[in-house]
Amino acid sequence: MTTRMITLIVMVLGAAFSRIIPHPWNFTAIGAMALFGGAYFSDKRLSMAVPLAALMLSDLFLGGFHSTTLFVYAAFALIVMMGWYLTEKKSVARIGGLSLVASSVFFLVSNFGVWIMDGMYAPTFKGLVECYVAAIPFFGYQVAGDLFFSAVMFGGYELVKKYAFSPAGKLA
Fold this sequence. Notes:
The chain is an all-alpha fold. The protein is built from six helices and no strands.
């Protein structure tokens, strides 16, 4: 296993740890972790497997499996695939833009799951709207977390590449 691969795996596991430490609701590195994995793991299977495994490990620790888990993991997988768009050309604008889209995808898919699975809202269009409206207070933290942790993960990795490894800035 290369130094690059170990670094990526450690960063993804570290991001999953953000769910375990005290934090405001939805202010975690989960969306950033998915984008990052999709962008940096060159093997698409690994880009999906490593972040999903990290998410699953944190869910095991937190007891995070619930009726909407399938929707959460589906949103997460979609965000990993969005990260594939960043594999060739990463820029602050692209990463920031996709972080915002990732927050929106997660919000839409996971809350759709709440509406379908939890029985808290009527199975009508009005119930769906009520579900999304009730989730709006959490969306701001989701956006803030995705933007903040995307900056930390993408920026941190680029700094590691540039300064911590070989003099030419290339990972072993």
